Amino acid sequence: MQQAAGERELAAAAKAWPFEEARKVLARIGSKVPAKGHVLFETGYGPSGLPHIGTFGEVVRTTMVRQAFRRLSDVPTRLIAFSDDMDGLRKVPGNIPNADKMEAHLGMPLTKVPDPFGCHEGFGQHNNALLRGFLDRFGFDYDFQSSTDWYTSGRFDPTLLKVLARYDEVMAVMLPSLRAERQQTYSPFLPVCPRTGRVLQVPIVARDADAGTVSYRDPDTQALVEVPVTGGACKLQWKPDWAMRWVALGVDYEMAGKDLIDSVKLGAAICRVLGGVAPEGFNYELFLDENGEKISKSKGNGLGVEDWLAYAPAESLSLFMYGKPRAAKKLFFDAIPRSVDDYLQHLEKFPSETPAQRIENPVWHIHDGQPPAPAAHLSFSVLLNLASVCHTEEKAVLWGFISRYTPEVTPETAPMLDRLVGHAIAYFRDFVRPAKRYRAASEVEREALADLLGELERLPAGASAEDIQTRVYEVGKRHPFPDLRAWFQSLYEVLLGQPSGPRMGSFIALYGRAETAALIRRALAGEDLAA
Description:
By secondary structure, the protein is mainly alpha-helical. It has 23 helices and 12 strands. It has helices spanning 2-13, 17-29, 53-72, 123-137, 147-153, 157-165, 167-174, 180-183, 238-249, 261-273, 305-311, 314-322, 335-349, 355-358, 362-366, 380-390, 395-405, 415-435, 443-458, 465-478, 484-496, 504-511, 513-524; strands at 39-45, 77-83, 143-146, 189-191, 206-208, 213-217, 224-228, 234-236, 256-257, 283-284, 287-288, 329-330. The strands form 5 sheets. Strands 1-2-3 form a 3-stranded parallel beta sheet. The chain has a 3-stranded antiparallel beta sheet with strand order 5-6-7, with no helix packed on it. Helix 2 packs across helix 3 (53-72), helix 6 crosses helix 9 (238-249) and helix 20 packs across helix 22 (504-511).
């Protein structure tokens, strides 16, 4: 109990953003168990296109807030991943097979649209499976919930009837946010056509709160159709739907993208109309692709989940989500190596930190306070450059160097490092090697390289990476470079064929002084280092 009390005291004072958010939730419930028996965290997902990393960022970040809350309170918690899969298909995504066959199903609920991939009952079910697969890969503790299931099972019925009873008040919130033309036809209710099964955007011409029905004219036949708002015969427009869901489920926390600030405000107002209280949360900045454009499910631009995980461990993706959530960040392949090395650095610092420092360390939030041991003190950039200078796609070749550098480490004893070796080879193959451009050394650089060659040969057999780094610095200072940065850049461009690179002392210690000396001799002899 004393340890738990100490951790709670640290959590109460922690400055990391998940704890700031968790304290908002604690204040919301007044430290008491809500009537539903738990604090409910929610993330929403629109399965109209293939999932992308921005979608999953909400789950990663919300989980971090939930973990922080658990350190502040013993009140039970639950995380729901809610899919709005009853939404009508508005347009055909551009990044799916058989897209031409989807046109005939526009307007149908996503769970009623045939799966273009041919492996699930519907398109919504296919994308839901991708979402769950991602969440399961990260080991998230969550409950998946389907909008189709909630509507058709009747679990939304009491709150839908409340929306109907307070129709005019809901309209008073929504209408000022709409264009004048849209105001003339808008209704929060979208009937599901009994004849075609499509979700209809049609004016509501009559409503009966006592009977629980709305009426509209069929857009094809002009016949007057009366349908209940319950049982899945209607769904709500997405902004009223969001607010209705907050009330029906009793959501306590949900974050959203910066582009939804106005929608959150409208949802909060509708929530009050329905007698509820909008959840706590914050608006995070959007992810951008390499051109600075917003990542879109329908466009399929930016990185996909599988793209990132092909070149880096999942933990590095979690770190990317953790850092500065209120700042816009470009999400493309160049971000991967930096994120991996940042993760490794945070992991390496963790064991020597005080409890107060640890709770501020990102790896605490990535691993729920129990991060693994550091991975053999080798950076991803060093592994990338080792693959680069060896011109290899074989893990065994890199492990030959690693085993000589740290004989006690093997793929079996260091599985994380083994994963990093595989990722480094893949990233080198697809991104580094195609961009490598070696150049000949200038006269000043040739003299400095010859000087470095002599220093490496004079170093004692047991010289450490720091000893080697010191000699590299000293050589750079002895020659007329504008600054040491120019010296290191020349090493990268001449020896590695790239504008940036690793800490040279660590790289030389891993690659080997004899091998590095041979590389320098080849460069001085004018040989093609790309061969």
